[in-house]
Amino acid sequence: MKRLLGLLLLMSASVWLAACQEDSQLPEKSVFKEDEMPQDGEPLKIGFAMDTLKEERWLKDRELFEQAIESRGLEVDIAAANGDDALQIAQAEEMIQEGIDLLVIVPHNAEATAAIVHKAHGAGIKVIAYDRLVKNAEIDLYVSFDNEKVGELQAEKMLELVPEGNYVYIGGAPTDNNAHLLKKGVFDVLQPAIERGDINIIYDEWTEDWAPEQAFAHMSQALEINGNQIDAVIAANDATAGGAIEALAQQGLAGSVPVAGQDAELAAVQRIVDGTQSMTVYKPIQQLSERVAALAVELAEGNEIEPTVSINNGKSEVPSVLLEPTAVDIGNLESTILADNFHSEEEIDGME
Ligand code: GAL
Protein backbone atom coordinates (compact mmCIF):
# COMPACT_ATOMS: atom_id res chain seq x y z
CA MET A 1 0.00 0.00 0.00
CA LYS A 2 2.80 2.41 1.07
CA ARG A 3 4.81 1.50 -2.08
CA LEU A 4 1.71 2.17 -4.30
CA LEU A 5 1.18 5.60 -2.60
CA GLY A 6 4.82 6.48 -3.14
CA LEU A 7 4.57 5.56 -6.81
CA LEU A 8 1.47 7.74 -7.29
CA LEU A 9 3.20 10.70 -5.60
CA LEU A 10 6.23 10.30 -7.85
CA MET A 11 4.09 10.21 -10.99
CA SER A 12 2.12 13.37 -10.10
CA ALA A 13 5.37 15.20 -9.27
CA SER A 14 6.82 14.40 -12.70
CA VAL A 15 3.60 15.56 -14.46
CA TRP A 16 3.73 18.88 -12.52
CA LEU A 17 7.40 19.32 -13.35
CA ALA A 18 6.73 18.73 -17.07
CA ALA A 19 4.02 21.44 -17.02
CA CYS A 20 6.43 23.98 -15.45
CA GLN A 21 9.06 23.29 -18.05
CA GLU A 22 6.55 23.88 -20.88
CA ASP A 23 5.64 27.40 -19.61
CA SER A 24 9.25 28.48 -19.46
CA GLN A 25 9.66 27.75 -23.18
CA LEU A 26 7.35 30.71 -24.25
CA PRO A 27 9.40 33.83 -25.32
CA GLU A 28 10.20 36.01 -22.31
CA LYS A 29 8.34 39.21 -23.24
CA SER A 30 5.54 37.68 -25.21
CA VAL A 31 3.91 40.65 -26.83
CA PHE A 32 1.36 38.45 -28.47
CA LYS A 33 -1.75 37.17 -26.87
CA GLU A 34 -2.85 34.06 -28.67
CA ASP A 35 -5.47 35.95 -30.68
CA GLU A 36 -2.99 38.59 -31.89
CA MET A 37 -1.32 36.10 -34.11
CA PRO A 38 -3.02 35.83 -37.53
CA GLN A 39 -3.96 32.28 -38.30
CA ASP A 40 -0.67 31.88 -40.19
CA GLY A 41 1.21 32.55 -36.93
CA GLU A 42 2.93 35.56 -38.52
CA PRO A 43 2.76 38.87 -36.64
CA LEU A 44 0.00 41.25 -37.79
CA LYS A 45 1.12 43.32 -40.77
CA ILE A 46 -0.02 46.94 -41.13
CA GLY A 47 0.19 48.83 -44.44
CA PHE A 48 0.89 52.61 -44.19
CA ALA A 49 0.10 54.31 -47.52
CA MET A 50 1.32 57.91 -47.22
CA ASP A 51 0.66 60.84 -49.58
CA THR A 52 4.00 62.57 -49.37
CA LEU A 53 7.24 63.00 -47.41
CA LYS A 54 7.63 66.54 -48.80
CA GLU A 55 6.71 68.34 -45.58
CA GLU A 56 8.87 67.92 -42.47
CA ARG A 57 6.00 66.56 -40.40
CA TRP A 58 5.42 63.50 -42.61
CA LEU A 59 8.99 62.34 -42.03
CA LYS A 60 8.17 62.42 -38.32
CA ASP A 61 4.86 60.58 -38.92
CA ARG A 62 6.63 57.85 -40.82
CA GLU A 63 9.35 57.40 -38.20
CA LEU A 64 7.02 57.54 -35.18
CA PHE A 65 4.34 55.29 -36.72
CA GLU A 66 6.95 52.71 -37.67
CA GLN A 67 8.26 52.74 -34.09
CA ALA A 68 4.75 52.57 -32.63
CA ILE A 69 3.88 49.51 -34.74
CA GLU A 70 7.20 47.67 -34.30
CA SER A 71 7.24 48.31 -30.55
CA ARG A 72 4.04 46.22 -30.48
CA GLY A 73 5.84 43.36 -32.21
CA LEU A 74 3.97 43.92 -35.47
CA GLU A 75 5.19 44.47 -39.00
CA VAL A 76 4.66 47.62 -41.05
CA ASP A 77 4.89 48.20 -44.78
CA ILE A 78 5.27 51.91 -45.68
CA ALA A 79 4.99 53.66 -49.07
CA ALA A 80 4.74 57.35 -50.09
CA ALA A 81 3.19 58.48 -53.36
CA ASN A 82 4.49 62.08 -53.38
CA GLY A 83 1.23 63.55 -54.53
CA ASP A 84 0.60 61.03 -57.34
CA ASP A 85 -2.94 59.57 -57.06
CA ALA A 86 -2.37 56.69 -59.48
CA LEU A 87 0.83 55.72 -57.66
CA GLN A 88 -0.93 55.84 -54.26
CA ILE A 89 -3.64 53.48 -55.57
CA ALA A 90 -1.00 51.12 -57.03
CA GLN A 91 1.04 51.14 -53.80
CA ALA A 92 -2.05 50.32 -51.70
CA GLU A 93 -3.06 47.56 -54.12
CA GLU A 94 0.39 46.02 -53.79
CA MET A 95 0.16 46.05 -49.99
CA ILE A 96 -3.27 44.39 -50.19
CA GLN A 97 -1.90 41.68 -52.50
CA GLU A 98 1.04 41.15 -50.14
CA GLY A 99 -1.41 40.22 -47.42
CA ILE A 100 -1.54 43.15 -44.99
CA ASP A 101 -4.02 42.74 -42.12
CA LEU A 102 -5.03 46.41 -41.99
CA LEU A 103 -4.44 49.53 -44.11
CA VAL A 104 -3.67 52.98 -42.71
CA ILE A 105 -3.85 55.72 -45.33
CA VAL A 106 -2.95 59.39 -45.64
CA PRO A 107 -4.91 60.28 -48.79
CA HIS A 108 -3.42 62.70 -51.31
CA ASN A 109 -6.82 63.21 -52.89
CA ALA A 110 -9.78 62.75 -50.52
CA GLU A 111 -12.06 61.61 -53.38
CA ALA A 112 -9.68 59.48 -55.46
CA THR A 113 -8.66 57.31 -52.50
CA ALA A 114 -12.22 55.99 -52.12
CA ALA A 115 -11.21 53.40 -54.72
CA ILE A 116 -8.53 52.07 -52.38
CA VAL A 117 -11.05 51.61 -49.56
CA HIS A 118 -13.28 49.55 -51.86
CA LYS A 119 -10.34 47.34 -52.88
CA ALA A 120 -9.27 46.81 -49.28
CA HIS A 121 -12.78 45.94 -48.13
CA GLY A 122 -13.05 43.58 -51.10
CA ALA A 123 -10.07 41.73 -49.60
CA GLY A 124 -11.61 41.81 -46.10
CA ILE A 125 -9.14 44.46 -44.89
CA LYS A 126 -10.23 47.37 -42.72
CA VAL A 127 -8.99 50.92 -43.40
CA ILE A 128 -8.01 53.77 -41.06
CA ALA A 129 -7.73 57.33 -42.45
CA TYR A 130 -4.65 58.96 -40.83
CA ASP A 131 -4.78 62.75 -40.33
CA ARG A 132 -6.77 63.32 -43.55
CA LEU A 133 -10.30 62.01 -44.23
CA VAL A 134 -11.17 59.87 -47.25
CA LYS A 135 -14.43 61.08 -48.78
CA ASN A 136 -17.35 59.01 -50.14
CA ALA A 137 -16.23 55.61 -48.90
CA GLU A 138 -17.26 53.54 -45.83
CA ILE A 139 -14.01 54.09 -43.98
CA ASP A 140 -13.67 52.12 -40.72
CA LEU A 141 -12.00 54.81 -38.64
CA TYR A 142 -10.62 58.36 -38.96
CA VAL A 143 -7.95 59.65 -36.54
CA SER A 144 -6.64 63.20 -36.74
CA PHE A 145 -6.29 66.47 -34.89
CA ASP A 146 -9.32 68.78 -34.72
CA ASN A 147 -8.55 70.63 -37.96
CA GLU A 148 -11.34 73.18 -37.61
CA LYS A 149 -9.84 74.03 -34.22
CA VAL A 150 -6.47 74.57 -35.92
CA GLY A 151 -8.06 77.25 -38.13
CA GLU A 152 -9.87 78.80 -35.15
CA LEU A 153 -6.62 79.07 -33.17
CA GLN A 154 -4.90 80.77 -36.12
CA ALA A 155 -7.71 83.32 -36.59
CA GLU A 156 -8.07 84.03 -32.85
CA LYS A 157 -4.36 84.87 -32.58
CA MET A 158 -4.42 87.07 -35.70
CA LEU A 159 -7.49 89.02 -34.53
CA GLU A 160 -5.67 89.59 -31.24
CA LEU A 161 -2.67 91.03 -33.11
CA VAL A 162 -4.60 92.75 -35.96
CA PRO A 163 -8.19 93.58 -34.90
CA GLU A 164 -8.62 95.83 -37.96
CA GLY A 165 -7.15 95.78 -41.45
CA ASN A 166 -6.54 93.88 -44.68
CA TYR A 167 -6.20 90.11 -44.41
CA VAL A 168 -4.77 87.59 -46.89
CA TYR A 169 -5.78 83.91 -46.71
CA ILE A 170 -3.34 81.39 -48.23
CA GLY A 171 -5.31 78.14 -48.26
CA GLY A 172 -4.06 74.56 -48.45
CA ALA A 173 -4.52 71.99 -51.22
CA PRO A 174 -8.18 71.79 -52.36
CA THR A 175 -7.76 68.00 -52.81
CA ASP A 176 -7.06 67.71 -49.06
CA ASN A 177 -10.15 67.60 -46.85
CA ASN A 178 -8.11 69.17 -44.04
CA ALA A 179 -7.64 72.34 -46.08
CA HIS A 180 -11.43 72.79 -46.15
CA LEU A 181 -11.76 72.14 -42.41
CA LEU A 182 -8.96 74.61 -41.61
CA LYS A 183 -10.55 77.29 -43.76
CA LYS A 184 -13.95 76.75 -42.13
CA GLY A 185 -12.36 77.20 -38.69
CA VAL A 186 -10.59 80.41 -39.78
CA PHE A 187 -13.65 82.03 -41.33
CA ASP A 188 -16.01 80.97 -38.50
CA VAL A 189 -13.83 83.11 -36.20
CA LEU A 190 -13.22 85.99 -38.64
CA GLN A 191 -16.85 86.32 -39.82
CA PRO A 192 -18.09 88.71 -37.08
CA ALA A 193 -15.12 91.04 -37.68
CA ILE A 194 -15.73 90.86 -41.45
CA GLU A 195 -19.41 91.70 -40.94
CA ARG A 196 -18.49 94.63 -38.67
CA GLY A 197 -16.21 95.86 -41.46
CA ASP A 198 -13.20 95.76 -39.12
CA ILE A 199 -11.29 93.43 -41.43
CA ASN A 200 -11.31 92.85 -45.21
CA ILE A 201 -10.30 89.60 -46.84
CA ILE A 202 -8.49 91.14 -49.80
CA TYR A 203 -7.04 87.90 -51.15
CA ASP A 204 -8.04 84.24 -50.71
CA GLU A 205 -6.55 81.37 -52.73
CA TRP A 206 -6.03 77.59 -52.43
CA THR A 207 -2.44 76.31 -52.82
CA GLU A 208 -2.15 73.27 -55.13
CA ASP A 209 -0.33 70.46 -53.34
CA TRP A 210 0.54 72.83 -50.45
CA ALA A 211 3.47 74.03 -52.60
CA PRO A 212 5.52 76.85 -50.93
CA GLU A 213 6.42 78.22 -54.40
CA GLN A 214 2.73 78.63 -55.16
CA ALA A 215 2.16 80.33 -51.81
CA PHE A 216 5.02 82.69 -52.69
CA ALA A 217 3.38 83.46 -56.06
CA HIS A 218 -0.04 84.04 -54.45
CA MET A 219 1.43 86.34 -51.80
CA SER A 220 3.44 88.29 -54.39
CA GLN A 221 0.26 88.80 -56.42
CA ALA A 222 -1.71 89.87 -53.33
CA LEU A 223 1.00 92.44 -52.46
CA GLU A 224 1.08 93.75 -56.02
CA ILE A 225 -2.70 94.01 -56.44
CA ASN A 226 -3.03 95.84 -53.09
CA GLY A 227 0.02 98.07 -53.25
CA ASN A 228 1.54 96.24 -50.27
CA GLN A 229 -1.41 97.41 -48.09
CA ILE A 230 -1.62 94.14 -46.17
CA ASP A 231 -1.95 93.89 -42.38
CA ALA A 232 -2.17 90.13 -41.67
CA VAL A 233 -1.62 86.76 -43.38
CA ILE A 234 -3.13 83.40 -42.41
CA ALA A 235 -1.39 80.51 -44.19
CA ALA A 236 -2.79 76.97 -43.93
CA ASN A 237 0.55 75.48 -42.83
CA ASP A 238 4.15 76.50 -42.12
CA ALA A 239 5.41 75.49 -45.57
CA THR A 240 2.99 77.90 -47.25
CA ALA A 241 3.63 80.51 -44.51
CA GLY A 242 7.33 80.27 -45.43
CA GLY A 243 6.50 81.01 -49.08
CA ALA A 244 4.33 83.99 -48.07
CA ILE A 245 7.03 85.40 -45.75
CA GLU A 246 9.58 85.23 -48.58
CA ALA A 247 7.28 87.38 -50.71
CA LEU A 248 6.81 89.82 -47.79
CA ALA A 249 10.60 89.93 -47.33
CA GLN A 250 11.01 90.96 -50.98
CA GLN A 251 8.90 94.01 -50.16
CA GLY A 252 10.77 94.67 -46.90
CA LEU A 253 7.67 93.69 -44.92
CA ALA A 254 8.82 90.48 -43.20
CA GLY A 255 8.43 90.93 -39.44
CA SER A 256 6.05 93.90 -39.75
CA VAL A 257 3.08 91.92 -41.13
CA PRO A 258 1.89 89.19 -38.70
CA VAL A 259 1.73 85.70 -40.24
CA ALA A 260 0.03 82.54 -38.91
CA GLY A 261 1.04 78.97 -39.83
CA GLN A 262 0.58 75.35 -38.71
CA ASP A 263 2.70 72.24 -38.03
CA ALA A 264 5.47 73.68 -35.79
CA GLU A 265 8.09 73.04 -38.47
CA LEU A 266 11.64 73.80 -37.33
CA ALA A 267 11.97 76.64 -39.87
CA ALA A 268 8.71 78.15 -38.61
CA VAL A 269 9.82 77.95 -34.99
CA GLN A 270 13.02 79.70 -36.05
CA ARG A 271 10.93 82.41 -37.76
CA ILE A 272 8.88 82.85 -34.57
CA VAL A 273 12.12 83.37 -32.60
CA ASP A 274 13.36 85.76 -35.33
CA GLY A 275 10.01 87.61 -35.35
CA THR A 276 9.04 87.08 -38.99
CA GLN A 277 6.23 84.60 -38.13
CA SER A 278 3.77 85.27 -35.28
CA MET A 279 2.45 81.82 -34.45
CA THR A 280 2.09 78.21 -35.51
CA VAL A 281 -0.24 75.43 -34.44
CA TYR A 282 1.49 72.52 -32.74
CA LYS A 283 0.09 69.01 -33.32
CA PRO A 284 2.01 66.39 -31.25
CA ILE A 285 2.62 63.78 -33.95
CA GLN A 286 3.76 61.26 -31.37
CA GLN A 287 0.23 61.21 -29.90
CA LEU A 288 -1.34 60.69 -33.33
CA SER A 289 1.00 57.88 -34.39
CA GLU A 290 0.67 56.09 -31.04
CA ARG A 291 -3.11 56.38 -31.05
CA VAL A 292 -3.43 55.08 -34.61
CA ALA A 293 -1.06 52.18 -33.88
CA ALA A 294 -3.09 51.14 -30.83
CA LEU A 295 -6.39 51.40 -32.71
CA ALA A 296 -4.96 49.58 -35.73
CA VAL A 297 -4.16 46.57 -33.54
CA GLU A 298 -7.65 46.63 -32.01
CA LEU A 299 -9.31 46.80 -35.43
CA ALA A 300 -7.03 44.19 -36.99
CA GLU A 301 -7.94 41.84 -34.12
CA GLY A 302 -11.61 42.46 -34.83
CA ASN A 303 -12.22 44.27 -31.52
CA GLU A 304 -14.75 47.09 -31.04
CA ILE A 305 -13.24 50.56 -30.65
CA GLU A 306 -14.46 53.69 -28.81
CA PRO A 307 -14.57 56.59 -31.29
CA THR A 308 -14.88 60.07 -29.68
CA VAL A 309 -17.02 61.51 -32.49
CA SER A 310 -18.49 60.54 -35.87
CA ILE A 311 -17.87 62.61 -38.99
CA ASN A 312 -19.94 62.46 -42.16
CA ASN A 313 -17.68 61.96 -45.20
CA GLY A 314 -20.45 62.08 -47.77
CA LYS A 315 -20.99 58.31 -47.62
CA SER A 316 -21.30 57.39 -43.95
CA GLU A 317 -20.90 58.60 -40.37
CA VAL A 318 -17.24 57.69 -39.90
CA PRO A 319 -16.19 56.72 -36.34
CA SER A 320 -13.48 59.27 -35.54
CA VAL A 321 -10.93 60.25 -32.91
CA LEU A 322 -9.85 63.92 -32.91
CA LEU A 323 -6.82 65.07 -30.91
CA GLU A 324 -6.23 68.55 -29.49
CA PRO A 325 -3.98 71.08 -31.32
CA THR A 326 -2.18 73.94 -29.48
CA ALA A 327 -1.50 77.51 -30.57
CA VAL A 328 2.19 78.39 -30.13
CA ASP A 329 3.93 81.75 -30.18
CA ILE A 330 7.15 83.08 -28.60
CA GLY A 331 5.40 83.09 -25.20
CA ASN A 332 4.76 79.32 -24.89
CA LEU A 333 7.33 77.81 -27.22
CA GLU A 334 9.31 76.34 -24.31
CA SER A 335 6.34 74.84 -22.43
CA THR A 336 5.00 73.12 -25.56
CA ILE A 337 7.31 72.27 -28.46
CA LEU A 338 10.55 72.19 -26.45
CA ALA A 339 8.98 70.52 -23.41
CA ASP A 340 7.82 67.69 -25.69
CA ASN A 341 11.21 67.61 -27.40
CA PHE A 342 9.43 68.03 -30.72
CA HIS A 343 12.43 70.22 -31.47
CA SER A 344 15.43 70.81 -29.21
CA GLU A 345 16.83 74.15 -28.08
CA GLU A 346 20.10 73.34 -29.88
CA GLU A 347 18.26 73.19 -33.22
CA ILE A 348 16.94 76.74 -32.81
CA ASP A 349 19.29 79.76 -33.09
CA GLY A 350 18.75 82.46 -30.55
CA MET A 351 17.11 80.15 -27.99
CA GLU A 352 20.19 79.69 -25.79
C1 GAL B 1 -2.41 68.51 -43.99
C2 GAL B 1 -1.83 68.34 -42.62
C3 GAL B 1 -0.95 69.47 -42.32
C4 GAL B 1 -0.07 69.89 -43.46
C5 GAL B 1 -0.52 69.51 -44.81
C6 GAL B 1 0.55 69.42 -45.87
O1 GAL B 1 -3.31 67.54 -44.27
O2 GAL B 1 -2.83 68.26 -41.67
O3 GAL B 1 -0.28 69.16 -41.15
O4 GAL B 1 1.19 69.64 -43.26
O5 GAL B 1 -1.32 68.41 -44.88
O6 GAL B 1 1.07 68.19 -46.04
TrEMBL record:
This protein's UniProt keywords: Signal
Secretion signal span: 1-18
BP GO terms, sorted: D-xylose transmembrane transport
Alphabetical list of Pfam families matching this protein: Peripla_BP_4 (PF13407)
Annotated PROSITE patterns: PROKAR_LIPOPROTEIN
Keyword Cytoplasm: no
Domain Periplasmic binding protein: 46-304
Locations listed in the record: Cell envelope
MF-aspect GO terms: monosaccharide binding
InterPro entries: Bact_Solute-Bind_Prot2, Peripla_BP_I, SBP_2_dom, XylF
Gene Ontology CC annotation, any one: outer membrane-bounded periplasmic space
Membrane-traversing stretches: none
NCBIfam families for this protein: xylF (TIGR02634)
Name of protein: Ribose ABC transporter substrate-binding protein
Organism: Planococcus rifietoensis
Taxonomy of the source species: Bacteria, Bacillati, Bacillota, Bacilli, Bacillales
